[in-house]
Amino acid sequence: MKLILLFGPQAVGKMTVGQELEKETGLKLFHNHMTLELLHPFFGFTEETFRLSALIREEMFKSMAKSDIPGIIFTYVWAFDREEDKAFVEKVCSIFEQEGHEVYFAELEADVETRIGRNKTERRLQHKPTKRNIGESEKNLLESMEQHRLNSLPGEIQRDNYVRIDNTYLGPAETAGKIIEAFALNSSADAKGAAGCQS
């Protein structure tokens, strides 16, 4: 099993790239808003939402790590100035690594104008209802840049399986292709072909 941690600031394209990776590799996409959208109608964007979200995610990771699914693509907005985020990432990695699974880090970055444009895309709004208030969502995007550092510094991530991609001018399929190439991931077609040869 493989865990691909796909991270970067809001509206950089994590979910859409993750969807392309899922399509091309057969790994399962677990994007960060899946838990947030579940909890938001009850608690809004409060500390309770984020507390429960973290608990749900951790329990899902534990079950996933013991399952026979081929792998997980998990998207995450990682604030590098927050020790809580670092601790969460380390915990997630340890859950999978303790079961003998491989962990890959894929970091995305794009300029703010591009991200503001992507914040309004139909696919994003379809899968993330809490982003449909464009004015509020854009305000949050800009404020988060002022309050937190949402991309790593050079040399900050010390992992062999790590790639950083500026996808300002790349589409999701092209970005996913670069991740597949960097980590030598098998495509769904390759996996099906290999299975057919063994049968």
Task: Tell me about this structure.
The protein contains 9 helices and 5 strands, in the order E-H-E-H-H-E-H-E-H-H-H-E-H-H. The chain is α/β, with parallel strands linked by helices and 199 residues long. It has one domain (2-198): P-loop containing nucleotide triphosphate hydrolases (Rossmann fold, 3-Layer(aba) Sandwich). A 5-stranded parallel β-sheet has the order 2-3-1-4-5.
Keywords:
single chain; 199 residues; alpha/beta; Rossmann fold; 5-stranded parallel β-sheet; 9 helices; 5 strands; disordered C terminus
Brief write-up:
With 199 residues, the chain is α/β, with parallel strands linked by helices. It has nine helices and five strands; from the N terminus they run βαβααβαβαααβαα. This is AAA family ATPase.
Which architecture would the CATH scheme give at its second level? 3-Layer(aba) Sandwich
Output the CATH homologous superfamily: P-loop containing nucleotide triphosphate hydrolases
Low-confidence parts: 189-199
What is the CATH C-level name? Alpha Beta
Q: What Rg is obtained from the alpha carbons, in whole angstroms?
A: 17 Å
Mean pLDDT: 92
Residue fraction in strands: 5-15%
Gross morphology: globular
Give the helix level as a range of percent. Answer: 40-55%
Tell me the layout of helices and strands.
Elements: E1 2-7, H1 14-25, E2 28-30, H2 33-43, H3 47-65, E3 71-76, H4 83-97, E4 102-109, H5 112-118, H6 122-127, H7 134-147, E5 162-166, H8 172-183, H9 188-198
Parallel strand pairs: 1-3, 1-4, 2-3, 4-5
Helix pairs in contact: 1-8, 2-3, 3-4
